[in-house]
Amino acid sequence: MRAMRTARFLKVAAIACLVFWIGGCGLNPQNADRDLNATLPEVKTTIFSEAIRGLGRMNVIYGRGELRVMAKPIVDQTGTSLPTQGEIPQDISEMVKSSLNGIGGNIVYVPYDPEFMLNTAQTGYSQWGEKLLPNVVLVGGLTEFDRGLVTKEKNLNLSGTAEELGVPMGLDFEDTSKSSLASITLDFNLIDFNTFTGIPFMQAVNNIKVHKTLKEDNL
Questions:
Q1: DSSP state of 91
Q2: How many helices (H) and strands (E) does the chain have?
Q3: Are β-strands 170-192 and 136-161 bridged in parallel, bridged antiparallel, or unpaired?
Q4: Which residues pair with 181 in a beta bridge?
Q5: Buried b (16+ CB within 10 A) or exposed e, 83-92
Q6: What predicted TM-score, i.e. pTM, was given to this entire model?
Q7: By the 8 A CB rule, do 120 and 131 touch?
Q8: pLDDT tens digit string along 154-213?
Q9: Is 105 in contact with 56 (CB distance < 8 Å)?
Q10: Which of 22, 50, 86, 137 could form a disulfide with 191 if both were Cys (CB 3.0 to 4.6 A apart)?
């Protein structure tokens, strides 16, 4: 009896392995059906891209001369990026660097990376005399985030049955719409690199309003 059970178990196991093997050979990830349309790589632009390039052209036209700008890390100063699970970015330094480097003209972006500079100097890859010193340093950060400046919510619930007509059927419909307004503030200041003091009136406070809308229907 035990021998028959063992033989039956081995037979079932062999069939299962054969099915999995055949199925695995028939699956090819490259043959998967894709519902999304294939798109070619494209350049990402924003409404500020042309304004940034225009600033560089204006600098050349008016002959301002070369201005070397270094940017320190621009991070979240409110402490809400981690508790809100990244609802606002914790570090926007790379975006600021890309903006500075995208100005062009006589505006020269100078990276701030002490560890990289020390490592390359110690290995003999570069010399300090070949480096350009900045004229000004850009400092700042995210200084305000109010996620619930304005919050609105609308609900519509409809339900009915057809039991009076002798039809055992019911219908429920729910329509929900939510909208909110959040406020994000960015502060920037310019520091004189030679004196390490702030340049009077050289600052920018940018307040951004973010609108979020959510609509959901259930039937």
A1: B
A2: 4, 6
A3: antiparallel
A4: 150, 211
A5: eeeeebeeeb
A6: 0.67
A7: no
A8: 887 777 676 665 666 667 777 788 888 888 899 999 999 999 999 999 999 998 888 888
A9: yes
A10: 137
